Amino acid sequence: MGTVVMGFAQSETRPTAAANFHAKIEPLLSKYCYDCHGNGLNKGGLTLDDFGSDAEMLDQRTVWLAALKNVRAGLMPPLEEDVGRPGAAEITTLANWIKYDAFGIDPNDPDPGRVTARRLNRVEYRNTIRDLMGYDFNSEVEFPPDDSGNGFDNNGDVLTISPLLLEKYLAAAESIVEHAVPKVARVVRERVFSGKEFRAEKSSGSGDQLNARRAATVTRSFTVDQADRYQVTFELEARGSFDFDPSRCRLIGRVNGEEKFAEDIAWTERRPIRHEFEVAWQPGKQVVSFEVVPLPPAGSPEAEGVAGNAAAGRAPTVARPRNVPGATSVSLRINTVTVRGPLSPEHWLPPENHDRFFPAGAAPADDAGRDRYAADLLRTFATRAFRRPVEEAKVVQLVGVARQVYTEGGGTFEEGVGRAMMAVLASPRFLFRVEAPPPAAVGGGHVLLDEFSLATRLSYFLWSSMPDDALFRAAERGELRRTLGAQVDRMIKDPKSQAFVRNFTGQWLQARDVEFVPINARIALGADARPNRDGRVEFDSAFRKLMRSETEMFFDHVIREDRSVLEFVDSDYAFVNERLATHYGIPGVSGDSLRLVTLPPDSPRGGVLTQGTVLAVTSNPTRTSPVKRGLFILENILGMPPPPPPPPRPQQQAAKKEIKKKQTKQTPKRGRHPAHQQGKKCHT
Fold it and tell me: Are residues 544 and 514 in contact, defined by beta-carbon separation less than 8 angstroms?
């Protein structure tokens, strides 16, 4: 049962509710309930026929809510009682009286009450930034953990905001805009090649690991489209091992066969090498190469011959250094080769993501045109960030923030818009899902939830993120509520619904705890421990993730295939691979991929309660725990948590008076008693 609004729409309904109680409900209570809760009996401390008045009877809302839940769940009357079971019509009669008479709910005039403002939790914040900004911000590292309420970390009642978290939100807004939003309209094109992309001409080596002892040449070719000047930057690194190595080499860098630098490299712990220069290229293929020429150790006769050849203008002699046992040579690494260009401004291009945030291109040159452009951009951005249309006064305010940067502060137009976006990301209207109370209709009634709020609820429930364009358009046209079923089907089929599967199973079934819960596999499994392929009994990280994936795939299957909810408790299938099937004792499964497997008829598996995830998180480190599992079923499956434990008994106060040891009368030994001395019997 969902949330029940306990309040009377009109006071005039109370006499009608009392009359219906005596006419329809009392006979049912007498038939099914009074054997335990009436006629002088108060089993469980509950009496249903001893109210002082009709008003007192109607005020017992907690009692009627419990009765509604227990009867609908089939828990009352108890099966062991010989009173029969109420039929469907009788249960409906009781439920309708409790909802519409006792609680005064009017289905034609729903009163939703006040909705708690829900702060975005860490997962929702990260997903929302991803969809809004196209940037993956790791909120789980940057933000503190969220509090949980009733087992869920998206409970609005516990998602408070602390001064520390507020500071982190401000820092996050600045960091996100800094990384995601371009600062200029056009930039020089830049291409970066890594050392792995440079391949050896006659071997299988690459440029990320060259050796001073071995001659090698690595190259990388690419093409340019414009005849212009280009800037080329070489970023390399020479590094030797801890032990000194006498080997040396000459490193030569070339562009299209033309030598751009030549440098002798000797042993060094770490030495960065950087060369930057400009070249003039015509359209076509360009080749960058690096050659390693081994040199003899310094001071050796071979080194002097190399120096003489260099002085005479002759080509250097390639040295063949001796292999020293245990010695390691100097290594060379090409980190990056960066090509920037064409350098002429007419060939510059918009930066990455510029069209995402500035779809109309560069800003107009005049101030009025830039303000209009900024207003259009920020109106669209704030509408998506706030998840509903933004009022014009807020747009004017945001444009003023941007104007301070691109007009008065000397910054670019892009920097000004980015500054206004920071203000949006730090706004409570972005950080919280705020739903204003619906306005009262004519006559004091209430209206339904507006469609933008409905779109937000739907998207954060199924995607843990903001609504997409399709939901926004449906809400704008007022068609979302009418097409709700089709929208739900579309959203469940979207890959983003995996967020719902992972987050819901992770909290409802505590599946995310299985990766961290302490389990001593050898002691806990004991003689039933089944070895893996290597003959070892393991409960390692990979196996824990495997069990969590099993639970998520099972839940996903039930949801996407619209299966019966009863399969969560009992099913004839499971999602396993060879390793998991071996652990469960399911025969005939091979391979590493998890897949749906039909269980044998005599298998004890099936449903979520027999999965390793649930069994592990409801266990102690060395043994099972029936208490934990019983509590798990009551809270997570039946929705009937046990009452809180009784308060602790007060400690007994110490006695104020000292208790003196009582003097006991000593029994005289036989023969000493006067009766004994007179030869008479004694009974002491």
Answer: yes
